[in-house]
Recover the amino acids of this structure.
């Protein structure tokens, strides 16, 4: 404890090194000078890098989405064709619904075929078969 008091008494407190830092804002009171020792640790991202990553994502998602579009269309056609043989109203309605879903996903031809087949199946069941 005596050493600490004697150290304070001697006023031998060492000042922090300046490292060439100058006071830039001497006109303003209470503003600390900008430190030249602050460094930015960040990766630079250019427009080319950003566009290249978007193109890679677009290519992979377009292939995946096209498979999904056709899948909905083929499911819709399968349901519509099955509706000619089993549960015509229920399966035909499901084929029509999936046909509209596949049209909204981009598979217009498959969706239209499924909608037409489901409608024909329901129409035959309701209007032709009762009279035969």
């Amino acid at each position: 404890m005596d050493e600490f008091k004697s150290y304070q008494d001697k006023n031998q407190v060492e000042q922090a090194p300046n490292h060439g830092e100058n006071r830039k804002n001497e006109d303003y009171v209470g503003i600390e000078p900008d430190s030249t020792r602050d460094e930015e640790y960040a990766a630079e991202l250019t427009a080319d890098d950003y566009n290249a990553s978007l193109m890679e994502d677009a290519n992979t998602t377009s292939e995946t989405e096209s498979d999904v579009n056709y899948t909905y269309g083929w499911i819709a056609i399968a349901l519509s064709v099955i509706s000619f043989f089993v549960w015509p109203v229920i399966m035909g309605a499901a084929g029509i619904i999936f046909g509209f879903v596949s049209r909204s996903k981009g598979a217009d031809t498959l969706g239209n075929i499924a909608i037409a087949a489901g409608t024909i199946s329901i129409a035959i069941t309701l209007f032709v078969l009762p009279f035969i």
